[in-house]
Give the backbone structure.
Amino acid sequence: MAILGPKGTFSERAVDNYLEREELNARKLFVGTIAEVFDMVQRGDCEEGIVPVENLLEGSVSQTLDNLARNKVIIQREIIIPIHHSLVALPKALREDVEAIYSHPQALAQCQNYLRLQFPHAELLPTASTASAIAFVAEKASNKIAAIGAKETALNYELKIFEENVEDEKNNVTRFLVIGKKKAAETGNDKTSVVISSGEDRPGLLLDIIKGFARRKINMSRIESRPSRKQLGNYYFYVELSGHQNEQRIKDAIRELEKKNIGTISILGSYPACPNPSSIY
């Protein structure tokens, strides 16, 4: 299974959650970027991969949405896990000496209020993952830098925990998607993800999309626009529906959109819906 690395990322924690829940075994292959996770699955180097798609505080992970639109992979599962960040540094480091703090951009954003109040003068520097930030601090051997990431990962590097739970909201969670090449079995409590790429912008385009689903009482639990990268002002829509793509009402809604020449409609997969985030605490 392809995972954003190095070892100790929240992605790995989501994988462990998934494997335990499904009673599966898998060899973990750590890669450097979200795009590489997709590449590994696309090429067939891994049967599955896991990628973050949405955080409670910071919203969508744009790299994941864009790669879902570009790659021929299937969403097979969603996993939601609690996310708690710690501020960590070398054992002899002092809070007042910290000049720079490293972490993944999402983690820095999830802790922005804490960082603004506690370290107003520190430089905030992005890394590929929270685990790579922790590894960098451990290897750099400087008492003037710190990292934000998982407490357990920091302890594995024998770093000091300055403070735990520094995220701005204590009910912070991130949703991950398991991607692969096989369709998930229908469960009766499923979601379906769709990408709609409009050929041209026109008045009423979004209304036509919404009406096609609303008329059939299909809940659109999420809709988001992303730039198509083809020309300025041209977008695609990422849509999540309550229900399975095999349901007749969803088939009819998509068929109606196709007849209206909405654009290219790609079904990314139907997969079991994860329980409400509040139930995981």
User: Anything to note?
Assistant: The chain has three domains: 2-83+172-182, 86-163, 190-278. The mean pLDDT is 92. The longest helix spans residues 10-22. DSSP finds nine helices and 15 strands in the chain.
